[in-house]
Amino acid sequence: METIKKKLNALLDLQAIDCQLDDIARMRGALPEEVKDLENELTALQTRSYNTQEELANLEQEIVTRRVSIKSLEALVKKYEEQQMSVRNNREYDAITKEIDLQKLEIQLAEKRIKSAYERIEKQKIELEQYQVFIEKSQQVLADKQEALQALIGESEGEEQKLNEQRRKVTQHVDKQLLKVYERIRKNVRNKLAVVVVKREACGGCFNKVPPQKQADIKEKRSIIVCEYCGRIIADVIVPPEED
User: Fold this and answer.
1) For the sheet containing 195-199, what is the strand order?
2) List of residues 6+ apart from 118 with CB closer than 8 A
């Protein structure tokens, strides 16, 4: 029984510390989440900007490569045209003419792709400018939010560190399996109260009435008892002074 009592008392201490940490978190409001969301948004914008710059570089390289290809094709056309002047029959002439037409078609295709690349470059440059504007705005908003958050953290940082140290020490005295149950309940309930006491004959978590016999069992602290309605651990019974 003494072991169960110690476990329940340790859970009560842990819940009390977590309630104080929750109060500090509530005081900071939605700022931590806002800062995190802004950081993620800024990272995404910077990634898009980087990818756009990479695409611009690739398009510019594509233009250079195709211009070199066009020069090679033009040289080949000139060579074929010179050969065409010394053919011996119509068949050779037609074959060379076909090659000239083919190379000219390749030149036209390369020029078309260069034009398309230039159009894409203009579009990407506009997008890059927009990304830069968005990035600068996001950086400013993030800096303001971070400054506000740091101011709030500074007000309670010492107390938060002290509470976290107390929490670390208390959790050493809580059964590991029981600690997992405690954390799971805290995660699933709205007010984060995993361990409660009976007040005015009702569960301190969901306020449903606790039968007298169950209250007696809770007082004895011989076992871990959970509320049949909300699943919270009920660790003790508090009797008001006038009822004592």
Assistant:
1) 202-203, 195-199, 233-238, 225-226
2) 63
Both tokens assigned to 211 = 């039968």
Structure tokens at 75: 């040289």
Q: Specify the residue for token string 């898009």.
A: 48
Q: How many helices (H) and strands (E) does the chain have?
A: 5, 4
Provide the CATH number for the domain formed by 28-171 in this structure.
1.10.287.1700
Strand partners, 238: 199
Read off the pTM: 0.58
Give domain limits for the chain. 28-171, 175-243
Contact 198, 236 (CB under 8 A): yes
The residues near 111 (Cβ < 8 Å, ≥ 6 apart) are 70
Could you tell me the two tokens for 244? Answer: 């004592």
> Do 179 and 15 meet the contact criterion of CB atoms below 8 Å apart?
no
pLDDT digits (tens, 9 = 90+) for 182-214: 999 999 998 999 999 999 999 999 999 999 999
